[in-house]
Amino acid sequence: MKLQKLIEDLDYINISGDLEKQISGIEHNSKNIKENFLFIAIKGFKLDGHDFIFDALSRGSKVIVVENNNFYNKRDDITIITVKNSRIALAVLSNAFYNYPSTRLNIVGITGTNGKTSTSYFLESIFKNNQWKTGVIGTLGVKINEQNYNIDKTTPEANNLQLFLHNMLEKDINHCIMEVSSHSLSLNRVHKIQFDIGIFTNLSEEHLDFHKSLDEYMNSKIKLFYMTDKINIINSDDEFGKKMISKLKDLKTRIITYGINSGDIQAKNIIQMTKNISFDLVTSLGNINIKLNTPGIFNIYNALAAISCSIALGIDLKTIKQGLEKLENVKGRFQVIKSDEDFDVIIDFAHSPDGFKNVLKTVNEFAKARIITVFGCGGDRDKSKRPKMGEIAAKYSDICILTSDNSRSEDTQVIIEQIIQGIEESSYEYFKIPDRKKAIKKAIEIARPYDIVMILGKGHETYQIINQKKIEFDEYKIVKDILDSYRQK
Ligand SMILES: CC(=O)N[C@H]1[C@@H](OP(=O)(O)OP(=O)(O)OC[C@H]2O[C@@H](n3ccc(=O)[nH]c3=O)[C@H](O)[C@@H]2O)O[C@H](CO)[C@@H](O)[C@@H]1O[C@H](C)C(=O)N[C@@H](C)C(=O)N[C@H](CCC(=O)O)C(=O)O
Ligand SMILES: Nc1ncnc2c1ncn2[C@@H]1O[C@H](COP(=O)(O)OP(=O)(O)OP(=O)(O)O)[C@@H](O)[C@H]1O
């Protein structure tokens, strides 16, 4: 694409150099630059992209977007574009480069602290049951026609995001379900995405290293609801959901609310079972009984979010029910593995105080014997949640085994000591086993019939990041192997 055309929507301060150049790609990381790519220099949290301009030039870039007004262009063959905000420029240019893909797709954006992935998979199952060709972008990767692509973020950087949307269109996808993280809203990764529907699941303490306060965290999430064309769907039982509804009074698009205690769309007559949960869906279109193949009141909320969105898009209740009931399990979300010794192992991605509370409370409702919980906390992320997760795990478990999660650059022992601060007041007994595989082995060794071993925090992930190195760690396979090795004895 010619540079002149590419920059039509860009708000720039200054341009030096010619606009006749052909651009073959857009990139913010100099390492990924190929011949005739446009490089956007971003002032990051750790590094400054402006320091990599010469690297980008050496790899074939001839057009550079900078935020730094003083950047001096010494070369005639290079075009320099100065902008106020490089991250916004990345989003604007990527949108134009891929020919505005979001305007040709029906896009549902899901935001909230917990439940985004689960809601997106409930929704995908309903959409597919309605014969809609559906793509998904989120923590479990990008899914286009049963093909999965790994991504390193929940919501990809703007250039990759626009590329995935473009690829969906190439494969005739008409509906895209996207998890929209608060980071992506704050850092303008989704800027220029035209959402049809926005969904808010809930908000609780998380990412306070990045957002500094819960109100700031909420304000970043609220941005999504100003980006939607059709309808916004909000959990009105959630404290922050209620706050959002009152803050969004000036919104032009309609709001549909859902909940168990309030809302336009409600769940009543809930029956909780060990491996599933059923409820009567109450709507203005009629009522219908629905059975989810996964337990937990929190999953009713996730299902209600998906149901509200489907109703807003005109899908009938019978198709919605069938779609929800077809979904067996979302990877790493309350994934049950049975042992020969009559105890269950459950792998779950809970990694926030609220996630811990929800999942452990659910298990307490059906546990016939002890609950043994194996968990750690991520390094280089919000430290304030560590003692809180310790306190909740101790409150709802009989035995805790403290171990590593993704320690990243931090020392696992130090993280464990911070978790312990939340549990030690109760003179609660726990084990400290930093090696996660050994910790899982210990839990399985001490488990007795009817006990439940909860392994929290990593869910679907197949790696651990320890000492900044990514090592293979497939929790599901590890549990299976340990159970098999006992079986063979
Ligand atoms: C806090 C955050 O989101 N940080 C993101 C941010 O990093 P940064 O600004 O610090 O980037 P940086 O490393 O300082 O580098 C600055 C610039 O120099 C460039 N560079 C760097 C090195 C080089 O050799 N050449 C080069 O050009 C980089 O590409 C970048 O553009 O911008 C980078 C590039 O745009 C992102 O990769 C990085 O995400 C990191 C990987 C991350 O872990 N983010 C997490 C917290 C995140 O976004 N999580 C949410 C989900 C959260 C949840 O709900 O659980 C998500 O959506 O995934
Ligand atoms: N509605 C909910 N409310 C509270 N906790 C939930 C809810 N739904 C799921 N959880 C818990 O949070 C964990 C993560 O769920 P899920 O992956 O759906 O959330 P997410 O918002 O996508 O998380 P992330 O942003 O970290 O990817 C689940 O394994 C479960 O323990």
From TrEMBL:
It is an enzyme of class 6 (ligase). It is found in: Cytoplasm. The keyword Transcription does not apply. Keywords: ATP-binding, Cell cycle, Cell division, Cell shape, Cell wall biogenesis/degradation, Cytoplasm, Ligase, Magnesium, Nucleotide-binding, Peptidoglycan synthesis. Its EC number is 6.3.2.-. Residues 332-459 form the Mur ligase C-terminal domain. Carboxylation is probably crucial for Mg(2+) binding and, consequently, for the gamma-phosphate positioning of ATP. Residues 110-308 form the Mur ligase central domain. Residues 23-98 form the Mur ligase N-terminal catalytic domain. Its main location: cytoplasm. The modification N6-carboxylysine is found at residue 221. GO terms for molecular function: acid-amino acid ligase activity; ATP binding; magnesium ion binding. InterPro entries: Mur-like_cat_sf, Mur_ligase_C, Mur_ligase_C_dom_sf, Mur_ligase_cen, Mur_ligase_N, MurE/MurF_N, UDP-N-AcMur-Glu-dNH2Pim_ligase. UDP-N-acetyl-alpha-D-muramoyl-L-alanyl-D-glutamate binds at residues 30, 154-155, 181, 189. The keyword Nucleus does not apply. ATP binds at residues 112-118. One of its GO terms (biological process) is cell wall organization. Pathway: Cell wall biogenesis; peptidoglycan biosynthesis. GO terms for cellular component: cytoplasm. Its cofactor is Mg(2+). Catalyzes the addition of an amino acid to the nucleotide precursor UDP-N-acetylmuramoyl-L-alanyl-D-glutamate (UMAG) in the biosynthesis of bacterial cell-wall peptidoglycan. Belongs to the MurCDEF family. MurE subfamily. This is UDP-N-acetylmuramyl-tripeptide synthetase. The lineage of its organism: Bacteria, Bacillati, Bacillota, Clostridia, Eubacteriales.
